[in-house]
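Supplementary Methods S3. Complex input for the flavin mononucleotide-bound model.
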Amino acid sequence: MTNGELYNVIFNRKSVRRFDMTPLGQEKLDQLKTFMQGVKRLDEGIKTEFSIQSGNEVSSIFAIKAPHYISFYSEKKEGYLINAGFIMQQIDLYLSANQLGSCWLGAAKPNKSVPQGRDGFEYVIMLAFGNPSEPVHRTGIEQFKRNSLSEITSIKGAEQLLEPVRLAPSAANTQAWYFSGDAQEIIVSRKKLNIIKAQLYGRMNIIDIGIALCHLWLSAEQQGKAVEFDLSGGPAPEGHEYMAKVRLRDL
Ligand SMILES: Cc1cc2nc3c(=O)[nH]c(=O)nc-3n(C[C@H](O)[C@H](O)[C@H](O)COP(=O)(O)O)c2cc1C
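Predicted complex, serialized as structure tokens:
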């Protein structure tokens, strides 16, 4: 699977919540595992692990019934939630590009038969996946319920670069991201939340930022640009919290 194929599916992907419960064949699962081993990481210094489970290993009243789930575990280091979003979104796009359904599950936790930690790593998030029993793709941009570009960025002249970022999925479609600076150095921040919303979405919205960075990386590459991510602190627009700086240069 090329990065160009991952990029293309950004414009059609959607969450799939209804699945054919027949498990996928071993070959498809092996191909997925190979892809997972090669994903790009935002921070090479954060060790992570994946675990693929079957439907009966995962329980939650919120969980979507699917034949398979991928649980993501990570070392709890600075930036680990953004890194998780960045990595798992590549898998979400891979599944969609392979005509497989997938859905992020922030509300689900593996049940007791699946450890909350593995080798000292913390359980972070999960994706449900399998053969879809509903359409796996959108057929047009108008089917995305998303904020407009003017609502999520102050950068002028970067419409093509940021359109795929605008389409990124986020927990409960909160789209809490904001992009300022300029097209060479983008400051990525997220809306500050009140106490109640922070409890509901705080952690998820940081994972969302990683998802947006994944789309930004693929978009930049499509435009012949290399990106460098800087997660160390910096200033953010009023009402926002700084998340990352993304520097772009010609390849
Ligand atoms: C971090 C994260 C957690 C999510 N958790 C859930 C969940 O627990 N249950 C669910 O049905 N959808 C969940 N979603 C899916 C979002 O609701 C969905 O991505 C968003 O509404 C946009 O719709 P789309 O993915 O179809 O474009 C989650 C998405 C993200 C990115």
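Residues 14-15, 17, 62, 64, 103-108, 169-173, 204, 207-208, 211 surround flavin mononucleotide (CB under 6 Å). Residues 36 and 91 are 7 Å apart (CA to CA).
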